[in-house]
Structure prediction request, 285 residues.
Amino acid sequence: MTGALPGVAPMAVPPGAFLVVGTLLFAIGLAGALLKRNALLIFLSIELMMNAVNLLFLTYARMRGDLAGQMIVFFVIAVAAAEAAVGLAIFVALFRAHRTVDVDKIALLKW
Amino acid sequence: MPALNGQLVVFGFASFLALAFALLMVVQKTPVRSVLSLVVTFFGLSVLAILLAAPFIAALQIFVYAGAILVLFLFVIMLLNLKEEAADKDDRPVQRTLGLLVALALGGLLAGATLRAPVPPRGAPTGTPIPLPDEIPALGRLLFSDYLLAFEVLSLLLLVAAVGALLLSKRRFE
Prediction:
């Protein structure tokens, strides 16, 4: 299943190991997104989670011998770039209005 | 098989680097240090991508993530002159513990689920086998044939994002 495809060398590293690394990275990113109080760092943690998912996509692409997984990663990276530009601009605007990016202090929509 | 062992060593090193610096990113109190730790994580991830026979994605990861997105983060952090996170007075211990618990539980659940999940059989309509020597040309052909519409929409999205970012950071919200 993992390396028997024609033209594809067998995987020296068991694919499960990649999957574990990916999910661990995702969990670390989630912990960061939940624990951080700085909006920028929460955003950064989300970037890490996206990269963890990208690793899973690449692993499955390799396991299936299918380039579609790599295409998806390509699109995820490009959309992440667009999202980072807009998100950071929002944080700059937020900081201008409130002088802080601490999510505990930005509670305009809370009550 | 020495070559295979070499791959294992590289995998172990890269994944250790990625995981350790990701943890550092979360633990770090200074935003700049968090971003710099994440750069190392992304380098580790790009090594893993090479191990997974995806050299194009690996290069993209370095160029776009480490090169562009994280530098953008650094710029904004320095522009806003962000200091350390408010020192650990820990005004919400309950939420903190809960958040940690949720992350741990979800991480364990996901690890178990992904390890058990069966890989869907190959042969879907878009399934293109990866010919290792000319993988990047194959990617390029795929990008400009099957994914042409998505690619064009993507370029439009990037343009809109650039204009939106300009507008957002220009206008004053007082």
Notes: Chain B touches chain A through 93 residues (CB under 8 Å). Confidence is low (pLDDT under 50) at residues 123-128 of chain B. The CA atoms of residues 108 and 114 of chain B lie 10 Å apart. The radius of gyration of chain B is 21 Å.
